[in-house]
Amino acid sequence: MNVTYLGLMAGAITTAAAVPQVVRTYRTRQARDISIWQPVLLNVGMSMWLIYGLIIGDTPLIAANAFSIVCYSLLIIMKIVYKEDDKSKSCA
Question: What is the pTM for the complete model shown?
Answer without folding.
Answer: 0.80
